[in-house]
Specification:
- This protein is of the alpha+beta class and 265 residues long.
- Helix content is 15%, strand content 30%.
- It folds into two domains: 179 residues, M1 Pyruvate Kinase, Domain 3, CATH 2.40.33; 71 residues, no CATH class.
Length: 265
Amino acid sequence: MPFLARITIYPMKSLDGTTVTQARILSSGALEHDREFALFDERGDFVNGKRNPRVHLLRSVFEVEAGKVTLQVQGTELRQSFQIQGDRQELEAWLSGFFGFPVKVLRNPEGGFPDDTNASGPTVIGLGTLEEVSTWFPGLCVEDLRVRFRANLEIGGVPAFWEDRLFGEPGTVVEFKVGSVRLEGVNPCQRCAVPTRDPRTGEAYPKFQKVFATRREATLPPWATPSRFNHFYRVSVNTRIPPSEAGKVLKVGDEVRLLGIRYVE
């Protein structure tokens, strides 16, 4: 029986995640505290792993309810803790010194800063998928793939790529429930350069994208919708959560149930 095996939120976009046992749904359909904060440069662009590999050298530990973050530069003793709201100027000065240019920290408590604003709910991946993909890359384990792909919800009790059941043809969503929360699967997530790199050092894994795409095409399950793969460097599923679900709570151990396909405009 499919069940919710793990919940990971990323309080500050592009930085390390933190595992929680439950997560409340916001009116926007986002998980509370997920990508609540983000780093921006002087031009208003995100400071993230896509644009700046130094992000990979930045370790972060969050005390979510306390609104606190401890930052450390990988491989050094340089560590400092901040109240994200109360110590904002000091936090921005520390980050600016680390990156070598001015950095601002902005907050959106209602919806966070999702990559896909049309599917701003949690991303979903199966534990079986992480296990399968880890066999494609010698030296990488499930935890390595977990921190590379950065999904919010991990589904247990299912085969590899089970989550490909959660999207259909363009113009449709697949409705499913996790516990009492109704979600809509939208599309398979297109990956960027970030998963190709070691999230702790920024070092690129040789031919990661090519190997991944080749193996993904070869192992595409019969329940997947081929038309959604204009290329095969895609894994995990983008979702959205209807406003009716605001205030409900996802909990580790919740049963996952498919409801059916719905056509949308």
